Amino acid sequence: MKTIEELLESKNIRVTAMRLLIYKFLVEKDVAVTLSDIENAFEKSDRTTLYRTIKTFEEKGIVHQIDDGTGITKYALCEKGCNCEIENDLHLHFHCNNCNETVCLTAHKIPQIKVPDGFVAENVNLVVKGICDKCSGH
Amino acid sequence: MKTIEELLESKNIRVTAMRLLIYKFLVEKDVAVTLSDIENAFEKSDRTTLYRTIKTFEEKGIVHQIDDGTGITKYALCEKGCNCEIENDLHLHFHCNNCNETVCLTAHKIPQIKVPDGFVAENVNLVVKGICDKCSGH
DNA sequence: TCATTAATGCACTTCCATTGCATTTGTTTT
DNA sequence: AAAACAAATGCAATGGAAGTGCATTAATGA
């Protein structure tokens, strides 16, 4: 079990207090978060720092960006099965219309999508909307 | 073959000069367009009018909104097969990373997506990114 | 320790979506 | 046809989020 410090270092990310806090925050939340979510979690934080920290995490492949259709970019930690930095990010995301939270359904891979002749698919973004397990009550 | 006037009236949309122009513009473009695209097409237009016209079209079910991940909302005419006002909008969208255009692949229905127990799927948004037929050269 | 490089914080800009309100246009009623 | 009403339009302004420039601070390496 790696410490967070070791994890960051293994990805060539300098360890700073802010980065540790942000990483821990992402671990604790099991849902995708917006920049504002992080901002509100730390009163003393500066939006720019958060923004750039998340971008760094993204570039280094420990966070991926999610466009769930709400118009606000969300972010979530990449999990073991997530290879979004290497190939396409092939898991799907679920957005709850009730609690407004978005989760990664890492275990659910996106089926092969056929596109017409002449089209070359490089990447797929799939968001399912509906009611999540917590809100549906079972 | 209905005239545009008849079409609008059949959907309970008042016919105005601006609305006819916007509708014709959408027909001519075979790709999804942004508000700014429409704005630039008509020098004398006001952004608000376009915005509200598109919203009206959307409510009445002749236009649907597309979130292709570029961060800018796009719109396209609903076609015969498009039942987005009644049920889910089940066709997929293709965004070209080269020419930056987004098209509706109306003929390509989204396969059934399984979600974990407890989750209730109501709607699916699927955007494939890559190179479109025009840009791939065949 | 000093020099270098990266991270942070503040201020600011830009872009798009959206709303309020006054005006104009179109429709309906008498 | 005129008056009354409702909807469409245009202008101005707001709000939210993304992104950038620059000076300052902190961390690393020689």
Automatic annotation (TrEMBL), chains A, B:
How cofactor binds (record note)? Binds 1 zinc ion per subunit.
Q: What keywords does the record list, in alphabetical order?
A: Metal-binding, Zinc
GO BP, one annotated term: regulation of secondary metabolite biosynthetic process
Pfam families documented for this protein: FUR
Task: State a single Gene Ontology molecular function.
Answer: zinc ion binding
* Obligatory cofactor(s): Zn(2+)
Key word Zinc present in the record? Answer: yes
Residues annotated to bind Zn(2+): C96, C99, C132, C135
User: What InterPro entries does UniProt report for this protein, alphabetically?
Assistant: FUR, WH-like_DNA-bd_sf, WH_DNA-bd_sf
PANTHER family, alphabetically? Answer: HYDROGEN PEROXIDE SENSITIVE REPRESSOR, ZINC UPTAKE REGULATION PROTEIN
Q: What name goes with this protein?
A: Fur family transcriptional regulator, ferric uptake regulator
